[in-house]
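Input structure tokens:
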């Protein structure tokens, strides 16, 4: 019996040592994965920076997508027969909906990052500032508005994609997913736009090429 007891003690010590080793390996693996994730995020963040120009051939037509949302929500679109619809026909709503116009119609986008915030600058120097560190209401678009409200956005990383949510001043919602392609020379933005006054959501894809890079190989 004494021999069996000693064997059990040795087995118990071995089991504890093995368990401790598993814990150490698990912590080490988690640390390595976290470090790799942070490295990938930093690389993607760096690649996002700079000037981007819209690629009309690869992007959805914003007016077409707005009309599709109007119809899906039960609204009516005027028939034009032989008249051509003016470009950017649905752009130019009330001031509290300007953010929608900027992300769905502007042809230029400049992206900067200064810890801990992103700055997205569109045409006419229109800016959005937002964080990706877990803050919920932390940004404004062109500062505070005298109407008593402000646009705000917040972002987070989902693998290699930057996901940005916005709450424009009209009470609506946007969800934008920014993904790099073509070795970092192309930026795809998949967005869902839900203005407060719309019955249906606008689904829109905008594709940008890095300014100064001739990457149109399609």
């Amino acid at each position: 019996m004494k021999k069996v007891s000693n064997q059990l003690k040795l087995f118990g010590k071995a089991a504890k040592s093995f368990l401790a080793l598993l814990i150490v390996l698990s912590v080490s693996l988690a640390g390595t994965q976290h470090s790799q994730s942070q490295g990938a995020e930093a690389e993607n963040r760096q690649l996002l920076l700079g000037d981007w120009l819209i690629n009309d051939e690869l992007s959805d037509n914003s007016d077409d997508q707005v009309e599709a949302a109007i119809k899906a929500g039960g609204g009516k679109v005027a028939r034009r027969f032989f008249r051509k619809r003016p470009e950017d026909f649905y752009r130019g709503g009330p001031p509290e909906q300007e953010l929608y116009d900027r992300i769905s119609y502007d042809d230029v986008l400049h992206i900067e990052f200064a810890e801990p915030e992103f700055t997205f600058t569109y045409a006419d120097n229109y800016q959005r500032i937002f964080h990706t560190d877990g803050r919920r209401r932390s940004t404004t678009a062109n500062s505070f508005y005298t109407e008593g409200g402000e646009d705000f956005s917040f972002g987070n990383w989902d693998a290699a994609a930057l996901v940005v949510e916005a709450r424009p001043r009209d009470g609506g919602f946007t969800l934008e997913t920014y993904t790099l392609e073509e070795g970092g020379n192309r930026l795809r933005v998949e967005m869902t736009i839900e203005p407060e006054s719309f019955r249906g959501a606008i689904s829109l894809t905008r594709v940008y090429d890095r300014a100064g890079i001739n990457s149109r190989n399609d």
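Confidence is low (pLDDT under 50) at residues 27-36, 143-148. DSSP finds three helices and nine strands in the chain.
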